[in-house]
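STRUCTURE:
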């Protein structure tokens, strides 16, 4: 990611963080509308789950320029997700729901360069998580 993209993700994330709880609720609405079958994967309380998701996105945003710290955290998160029954195709659905939520939450501030910055960031985060979810070949 370019320094400009990192800055855009940070600034827009700070705005979404101010409305974290409704943004998380909106995200899950978007997600389950896109694929209602994903609902069965989530066993816990959705408000708590939403808070964890927003917190993790916040950590990723904060650590974008410290990949040596961020990458191992994402690999462990990805391995846990394989255990939750998450399949590679689900990452695209979640990415779509995330972008839609940002668009709804940020309005005009979610301009084209900001959308590209988030798309790049989500691509990197989800690719790292999915790598870790692959079974190790022996
Ligand atoms: C950028 C990508 C993602 C991030 C940052 C993220 C973040 C998190 C976090 C922080 C947790 C809390 C538990 C833990 O730390 O292991 C969690 C749980 C979970 N995530 Fe994700 N996640 C992502 C992608 C996905 C995708 C693609 C799916 C597929 C639908 C998914 C489904 C779940 C499920 C089912 C749980 C467990 C919920 C439960 O036990 O009720 N996540 N996620």
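SEQUENCE:
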């Amino acid at each position: 990611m370019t320094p400009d993209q990192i800055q855009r993700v940070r600034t827009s994330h700070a705005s979404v963080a101010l409305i974290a709880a409704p943004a998380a609720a909106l995200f899950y609405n978007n997600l389950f509308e896109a694929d209602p079958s994903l609902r069965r994967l989530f066993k816990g309380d959705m408000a708590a789950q939403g808070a964890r998701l927003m917190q993790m996105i916040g950590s990723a945003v904060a650590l974008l320029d410290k990949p040596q710290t961020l990458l191992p955290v994402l690999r462990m998160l990805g391995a846990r997700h394989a255990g939750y029954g998450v399949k590679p195709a689900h990452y695209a659905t979640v990415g779509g729901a995330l972008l839609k939520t940002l668009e709804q939450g940020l309005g005009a501030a979610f301009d084209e360069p900001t959308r590209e910055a988030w798309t790049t960031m989500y691509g990197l985060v989800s690719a790292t998580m999915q790598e870790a979810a692959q079974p190790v070949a022996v």
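REMARK: Helices lie at 3-17, 20-34, 46-62, 67-83, 88-106, 112-133.
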